[in-house]
Amino acid sequence: MTLDAPARLTPDTLPAPVMAGRDFLSNLDMTPLELRTVLDTAHSMRRGEWRDVKPLAGLSLALVFEKASLRTRTTFDVGMYQLGGHAITLSNQEIGLGTRERVSDVARNLERWVDGVMGRVYLQQTLQELADHAAIPVINGLSDMLHPAQLLADYQTIEGEFGTDLRGRRVVYIGDGNNLANSHIHLGVLTGTDVTIVTPVGYEPNAGVLMDAVKAGVQVTLTNDLAAIEGADVLYTDVWISMGQEAEADIRRRAFRGYQVTPAMLETIAPHGIFLHCLPAHYGEETVPEATEHPKSRVFDQAENRLHAQKALLYHVMGEMKPRW
């Protein structure tokens, strides 16, 4: 049996960009309908329907890194290339955000040369300052507060398993109440998933992010009871020690003892349930190789979807721009 070739889009059949020219610093910078459109585009890209179009031809994206990166750097760079654009990588050694140069001056320079900025930084305020002073879109590739681009790939992966109506699906995040936990709460607001955060006392998500859920009338369950994992549709974890927290490593390892995702833990989630991890994995801490390689794991599908989801984001943010040269 031969499979039909995927439908191919043409320049005349592309969907209209829904976030044209806007910043993307948080998942809540999208409406639920805009999120739906971006995820639909990501699914279409994964199916190969965009191979004949180059909607970002002639456009450039600056990739600004304060933190090391494998997935973020590769997927944004390759994503711009596949859409016909160009990416330039700038390490913090080269630009020195806030040290060698004021963040506002970096923004005012970049807006003269490129058409967008993706930043993978420590402080959310750094991204906000870039956005405040640059007349071009700024995309959050990660901050200590939020990781919204990752969540696009995560929900593309979840939808690939369960379909697009996720209302009532149980997403259980176990581990540090960090940027991933915060962004999971925001996706619960946008999609209607039932979000539970399982974390030790003292490591809860950001209070302001929890208030975002309260304002939206969405309930988020906070607990340190590992029994909350049972029956989950999605079990998600992340590292216990993020970049910049190395001085707390021993304290954190003690606090999170017992929160490691193992194959035995995966047997307690729903029979159809899946395991996700944004990577890199610190094996022996938050998980073990046997979990990421388990039949319920979709970890590497999730990593692939970083490319598709971020291409969709780039198109919907930059797709109406015209080359300036």
UniProtKB/TrEMBL annotation:
Q: What class of enzyme is it?
A: transferase
Any one GO MF term held by the record is: ornithine carbamoyltransferase activity
Report residues binding carbamoyl phosphate. R120, H147, P148, A149, Q150, C278, L279, R306
For the Aspartate/ornithine carbamoyltransferase Asp/Orn-binding domain, which residue ranges apply?
A: 168-316
Q: Where in the cell is it found?
A: Cytoplasm
Which Pfam families does the UniProt record give?
A: OTCace, OTCace_N
Under InterPro entries, the record lists:
Asp/Orn_carbamoyltranf_P-bd, Asp/Orn_carbamoylTrfase, Asp/Orn_carbamoylTrfase_sf, Asp_carbamoyltransf_Asp/Orn-bd, Orn/put_carbamltrans, OTCase_ArgI
Main localization is cytoplasm
Domain annotation Aspartate/ornithine carbamoyltransferase carbamoyl-P binding: ranges: 22-159
Q: Does the keyword Transferase apply?
A: yes
Keywords tagged on the record: Cytoplasm, Transferase
Q: Which residues bind L-ornithine?
A: N179, D238, S242, M243
Which pathway does the database say it acts in?
Amino-acid biosynthesis; L-arginine biosynthesis; L-arginine from L-ornithine and carbamoyl phosphate: step 1/3
Q: Record's Gene3D superfamilies?
A: Aspartate/ornithine carbamoyltransferase (3.40.50.1370)
Q: What is its EC number?
A: 2.1.3.3
Q: Which reaction does it catalyse?
A: carbamoyl phosphate + L-ornithine = L-citrulline + phosphate + H(+)
Q: Which family does it belong to?
A: Belongs to the aspartate/ornithine carbamoyltransferase superfamily. OTCase family.
Which NCBIfam families does the entry link to? orni_carb_tr, PRK00779.1
What HAMAP family does this protein map onto? OTCase
Q: What is this protein called?
A: Ornithine carbamoyltransferase
The source organism is Deinococcus rhizophilus
Q: What is the gene called? A: argF
